[in-house]
Write the structure tokens for this entry.
Amino acid sequence: MTVDRLQELLVVEDNPGDARLVREMLKASGLRCELRVAGRLTAALELLEERPADLVLLDLSLPDSHGVETLDALQARFPDVPVVVLTGFEDETTALEALKSGAQDYLVKGRFDANLLARSVRYSIGRWSAGAETKRSLSLLTATLESSADGTLAVDRAGRIVTYNQKFLKMWNIPESVAESRQDGQIQKFVLNQLKDPVRYLQKVEELYAQEDLESYDILEFKDGRVFERYSIPERLDGKAVGRVWSFRDVTERKHVVDEMRLAKKAADAANRAKSEFVATISHELRTPLNTLIGMADLLWETSLTPEQREYVDFFRRSGDILLKLVSDILDLSKIEAGRLELERIDFDVETLIEEVTGFFRVHAREKGIEFSTEVAPDVPTKLAGDPNRLRQVLVNLISNALKFTAKGRIAVRIDRDREAPNPGGLLFTVTDTGLGIPQVKLATIFESFSQADPSISRRYGGTGLGLAISKRIVQLMGGRIWAESEVGVGSTFRFTVGFDVAAARGNGHASEVYASGRRILIIDPSEEDRDSLVAAIGQAGTIVVTEDGLEGLAEVERANAAQAPYDVVFVDARERTLGGFEVVDRLRSSLGTAGRAIFTVSPNHHGDDLSRAAALGIAGTLRKPYDPDLVRTMLTRAAGAGRDPVEGDGAAERPLRILLAEDSADSRALVGFYLRNTPHHLDLADNGESALGKFTSEKYDLVLMDMQMPVLDGYHATQAIRRWETTHDVPLTPIVALSAYGLREDIQKILSAGCTGYLNKPIKKDRLLEAIQRYTRTEPA
């Protein structure tokens, strides 16, 4: 309250004349005030009870009270009202007693004038107001300190304690008597015995006292296991350090929680690694017998079989493929959950990828009488950079599901630009079917692991429910999203977006297109869809003519020869119905002469008798429907510069190689031996890495096939030992191809870091093995 405003004053005076004189003086001084008068102490107390006053002018000699006791009685009832004594007593002792009892001033009647009285009133009210504000500030500061969860201690520059809160004393177990000494040094001595490292504690204190402007944070550990955070900041006045404030926070429980979380995370990481290693080991152990099962079934399929036997073998092959996919799905899910699934970045052609993926499904859709279509929007950039293998995996999962659950109607695959993507490489893939459909309540859960839209689905159609869960995780890793729309009995539409970079144009096209440029190619195939697929794989650089049957094809060859424009390459369907594919090939041999190479296809699988007849006819090579565009291009490229290609692994034109196989599984060793039975290669066997090392150092080999998981000495250490021996003896490095079921990128990197030249993932197919042998030894046709 300021003294420039109207003041409420109470004059306690039993002499009416003196009271009138005070009123006149205050009026003369110009002090703005409202004055009330009481002649007795009891009357004054009643007036103050009715309405407080800003100041009381008190005579100590009243009819009902006398002396300093009058002041004490007034302040006892109203301690928040300032008092100025206005009395006739000139005794200094009485004046001192009044001032000690709380009077703001002591005026003797007859010794002051109006100005002195007004100045005393203003001074007393102002000082009282300032003191009250100070008291409130101190009270607020004390309450704040005491309400804090931290222990606080403030000291001046000389190390004297300015203030502290009770929390500080309690945290440090400091007796009140020690704190009342007001010496920081006394407190420091008391707490040192409680700390694990008292020397470091004192060093920090001395450092901060020496550098007054420093702020500090550190951790204090106690012998009894408690942990405090210690904060220290300088106290500044007018920009200068005048002391220091210490703050302590008990973080013992929090530290225990953090330590427990750290230990839990360490245990979880260890468990996750153990799980990943377990899954990888199980994958290896499952893939090893699967390798034999599937491989032997494939070899049996290539032999002459009765229809009934062929049906049985087909069951083996399909069951093996299903089991292999299940193992792969579980391994993929384990990789994703462990955060170890990494994406590659390579250039690829999205149209070619779609053709490769859908080619396989077209045959099965045709067998079920289902229309199958693909469409790529005109504005979709086809040359992209990203991970085509993971994109292929998602598409295969979606299309295989569509084919599995669609009994009639159509399946459509479409690619569009993702209009919401920030770059032109963002694509939207759509797979639509007219199958069973999915209930709306199940759409939200179908992308969860081991989830099926209907519990009976797995019994009726098979499957674990992992495909969509894995697809979702892959799409998310590729920066996209996946969702589904469906209606029971009408069909389903699955859509997903992924982002790729647009790849720069490279080279002049596929090698097959370079060869096809200026060449004449004839396709004899009754299926329009298969003819279109083959044309797409070849490319449009050459002259391509198509016919539906063998007679028409032979006539076309005669016309071309007569016009002196013979065909360079002829593709013949081995199951051509008018004459039979092999009869057509036999007639073409004399018609074509050396002008071209006849390449025939077998649909949907190669039979052993087909391969035997192909070898007898000496054709350039064989292809399997649906077409693999890469294999088509490889065949064409070879045909461009070779007189004769081997017939799908027939090694008649290959140079003999000496190959060492290190494999602990006797069945797997036998399988590789069967694969190479009709080749000119010589195969030596070792059942562990130590045996392989001994054979390698005593014989000369063109290639080593090294299983990575073997007893005695595994493939990693065996490979490293072989590389050291080669370096020591200054001999050229022999290609070493790793055989392993482990497929994580870090696993492959570990394999390559050990010194292997390449890698084959189990189970190993015959064509992949033969291709790897040729690639890593650079075997050229004779």
Summary: The chain has 26 helices and 30 strands. Residues 455-462, 506-512, 642-653 have pLDDT under 50 and may be disordered.
